Structure formats: structure tokens, C-alpha cells
Amino acid sequence: MVNRLHKAALTGDEIFATGMRDQWHAVCPSDFVARGDMKKVRRLGEDWLLFRQSDGTLRMLADRCPHRGAPLSQGQHLGDRVACQYHGVQVDGGGTVVSVPGMPGCNLEGKRLVTSLPVREVAGAVLAWFGTDPDAEPAPLELPERLTDDGISHFLCYAEWKAPWRFTLENLLDPMHGAFLHRESHSMFGGETSAKFRIRETDRGFFFEKTDQRGVNFDWVEFCRTGIDWVDLEIPYPPTAGPGGSFGIVGMGTPIDAETTAVFFWRYRRVEGWERDVWRFLYRTKLEERHWVVLEQDRTMLEAMAFDADQAENLYQHDLGVIRLRRLYRAQAEAQAKALQQA
């Protein structure tokens, strides 16, 4: 059985700061780890090792040798296992010690002593299940339909921001900032700078949407919980952007630690046939640069905010989506901390 004592010390505040457990999270783009390669990443405040076996299978292990705690990421890739550089202990992709070269037959051999996370690769990204119990099966994962529909073309945009993960998600649950922060952009210059909002419940989360404007600016966002947390939104495109309907974004934010976030944006459009080729060509040659400008506006704003900026706010009706999100995550963090203490 994998040692999980270090997780038992987590408080509700620590979980709220470093991310929810017992759910799937996006980790990094798939091409970060080539066949036969290894990469160290930090996610949810812990260090992990991603390594791709010689057959292409991706594995994710806690970056800690079970012998003396040395980082496995400094070790040697041996095809279907990793050898710790400190004393040569070999661990396979499932976290089982398969060899102790310094003492063959050692009682460590054959024991699963390193946490190994279930992983899936979807739409160019690595997703992993971060469970509080390493021996429990992961919950079902329902992927955003925007990423699985063959009639939708998408591009993955990845970045790391020096801002708390909650700021990045709250930014997406705040449609009104589009009319101000992004007003000079190529797609969010239209519409009113005042609006009324409502929350509309769904069977997988909720919509936060304007009641007096639709299809003009960043007018709605849907927050979804389907084994993994994500948001969906659409922004109308001008005719100069080529064929297809509105431009959409599926967004996720995964805590690296309490102060840094890995952000994932799949930019999508419903286009097929020759229109799909035109859209992808226009995106790569012209539109992608414009979208990065918008993304940089968000990054610059969020990174400039104080870490405790949300402790001295005066919120109003436009912030109902943000308030709803905070209450949801705060309650989940406290429930997970209580469960860990009882375990």
C-alpha cells in the first residue's frame, strides 16, 4: 500500500490554496514528454515525475524514491521503469519497486511504495486523477464535448501564470471584464459596458450570463464539473475572421502551488471541410497572435494583484459567479480536509 501520511496533514485552507483533490486535473501538454523522456512537474503543491515508456505509454509518479526520498526525476530512464540516481533503486510505472541493485532480494522489492496517478491524454493534454486515497479507483471522467466533437476544430494554448489558481478561474467567471480590459481587442469591442446577470443551474454546474445582451461580447460562461472542472464560453467573431460560427474557449486552471497556475485554453470553432482548413490557416497565420494579446492582458492583470486581493473586496451583482465558485470550492476543501483527518 502506498504511504499517504503526508496528505493527512492538509487543512481546508491548504487544499483551498493548492487545489481540490479527488478529481481530474489537466497537467501539461502531451508534447512536453517525448517517447523515452522524463519531465518533472509540480502540481497541487507536490512534485511529480512524468515519464513516457519506450512503447509510448505515459506514467506519472510522485517524484520521491521510496528508499531515501531522493527525486526520481534526477534518475535514469530504463524503458518501462526509472532508476534512482542516489542508490539505483528501480521503480516501474505503477509505483512498484522492481529492483534494489545494492541488495538483491531486499524486502522493498515487489512492494508498491510510490504513488502512481491514473493519466489520460486528451486533445493534446495530459490529465491526471489526484486522489486522496492512492488505492481507490478514479471517478468517471466526462470530457468537454467541444474537445470530442469531430465537427469542432480546436487549438490548445498553455501558459503558466504567477497568480493563485482561484484568480484564474474567477477571471473566467467574470464576463464583464471583457467589456473593459479587452475592449480594444479584435473581438470584444462591441456591446454595452453595463449589464445585469443571472445564475442558471444545469445538471453539471451553472451558467453565469447577461440577461440583457447575447451574442455581442463575452456574454456568458458555463462552469462544469464532470470529473474535471472546466469552463466554456463563446465570443462572436467579425467576418474578417473567416468561415465558421462564434469563437469558443474551453478553459481549465490547475494549481502548480499556492501562488502559480498552469492555465489551459482550447480555442475552438465549429467548422468542417474546406472551411476547417481555412479557419486553421487563418488562426495560425493571423488570429493566434491576436488571441495571445488578449491572454496577456489577463495574465498581466492577475499577476499584478496581491496574493490576498480577495480578502479586501467590495463585491456587487456582477460578481455572483465568483461568489458561487468560492463557496463551492471552500465547502469542498473543508469536506476533504475532514475526511483526511478521519482517515
UniProtKB/TrEMBL annotation:
Pfam families on file: Rieske (PF00355), VanA_C (PF19112)
EC number: 1.14.13.-
Domain of life: Bacteria
Presence of the UniProt keyword Oxidoreductase in the record: yes
InterPro entries assigned to the protein according to its UniProt record, in alphabetical order: Cholesterol_7-desaturase, Rieske_2Fe-2S, Rieske_2Fe-2S_sf, VanA_C_cat
Enzyme superclass (EC): oxidoreductase
GO molecular function terms noted in the UniProt entry: dioxygenase activity
Domain (Rieske) ranges: 24-128
Keyword list, A-Z: 2Fe-2S, Dioxygenase, Iron, Iron-sulfur, Metal-binding, Oxidoreductase
Protein name per its UniProtKB record: Aromatic ring-hydroxylating dioxygenase subunit alpha
Organism annotation: Rhodococcus jostii
